[in-house]
Design a protein that fits this description.
secreted; Lipocalin; mainly beta; 178 residues; 10 strands
């Protein structure tokens, strides 16, 4: 009998989660500063990026409710997601409907007063996002982000920067992703 090969290691398995992460420190408003991703939609529409904010709320002491506010075609939309705790502290799972729709998320590094670097994986595709407590972060934080990006095989060629103006304060429409 032939043996089955072991399951392929997920790229996020090699990513260390923030040590000593206190979930309440993730709570509050964050501004999306930058994203590194090989997403073809992002590459094709990078000239249309809109200022994006997220509000993080800790539910039941272990899950994260994430509300994203962003413009789409001139309207402010709210996208609501709930990330469930995964196998280890600092790791979360967004369950979707259908094959390949789940999203794994890892809190890679953060300073609760200034920045958070989060990793996302859907299927084999990995992206890294940099959030700030304000729309801008220091050069030192940007350097850290770029180190995290390179560590998962991405580069500055697939790194996109978001506007620091034009944020939505409330939603004209909302969408819930379970």
């Amino acid at each position: 009998r032939r043996r089955r090969p072991p399951p392929a290691q997920s790229p996020l398995d090699k990513v260390a989660a923030q040590q000593g992460l206190s979930l309440p420190q993730l709570s509050g408003r964050w501004f999306l500063v930058s994203v590194a991703s090989r997403c073809s939609h992002l590459a094709e529409h990078s000239h249309q990026l809109e200022a994006t904010t997220v509000m993080v709320t800790v539910l039941d002491g272990e899950s994260l409710a994430i509300s994203t506010l962003r413009k789409l075609d001139g309207m402010c939309w709210e996208i609501r997601q709930r990330y469930l705790p995964a196998q280890a502290p600092g790791r979360f799972l967004l369950k979707g409907h259908g094959h390949g729709s789940k999203v794994d998320m890892v809190v890679g590094e953060m300073d609760p007063s200034s920045f958070a670097i989060l990793y996302y994986q859907q299927g084999r595709s990995v992206s890294v996002k940099l959030y700030g407590r304000t729309g801008r972060v220091s050069d030192a934080v940007m350097d850290k982000f770029e180190q995290h990006v390179r560590a998962v095989g991405l580069s500055v060629d697939v790194t996109y920067y978001f506007p620091t103006y034009g944020f939505c304060d409330s939603a004209d429409e909302f969408h819930v992703l379970d």
